[in-house]
Design brief:
Layout (H helix, E strand, L loop, with lengths): L2 H9 L41 H20 L19 H29 L17
């Protein structure tokens, strides 16, 4: 590997002699909303979105307002659509989903602890059993 490239990767800079491609906003398609003609936004993974950033932000604000309204009317805090149980802040379906997620996290933590415990054991020589010698119990 080239030393200059390796140093550039570690430092988070471009290697010498490398030029960034010029980004042309006219190369991106227009926003899909009716009255908006701005270029579409770029997602975190580099793909093109269907709408511009301003329209995406407006929709996110609208969704937050709608969810807050439903929660204020007695909706579940997680999904905001179904009625929550009496004295609870989640509906039955979201409570079940959350319990399943918590159980999965617990199992993953137990598995990780078992793997760590196994990895911490020193290497031992293999001990043959009677079965390996051809004797049956």
């Amino acid at each position: 590997m080239d030393l200059d490239l390796l140093i550039a990767q570690w430092s988070g800079q471009l290697p010498p002699g490398c030029l960034l491609p010029a980004e042309r906003p006219e190369a991106r398609p227009a926003c899909s909303h009716k009255r908006c003609h701005r270029p579409v936004a770029i997602k975190r993974n580099g793909e093109l979105a269907k709408a511009c950033q301003r329209c995406l932000d407006r929709r996110a604000r609208s969704c937050r307002r709608r969810r807050a309204f439903f929660v204020a009317q007695g909706g579940c805090r997680r999904c905001a659509y179904r009625k929550r149980a009496e004295g609870d802040f989640l509906c039955a379906r979201c409570r079940g989903d959350r319990d399943v997620e918590r159980a999965q996290k617990r199992r993953d933590a137990i598995d990780a602890a078992a793997i760590d415990e196994f990895a911490a054991k020193p290497e031992t020589a293999h001990r043959t059993s009677n079965l390996g010698c051809g004797l049956s119990p």
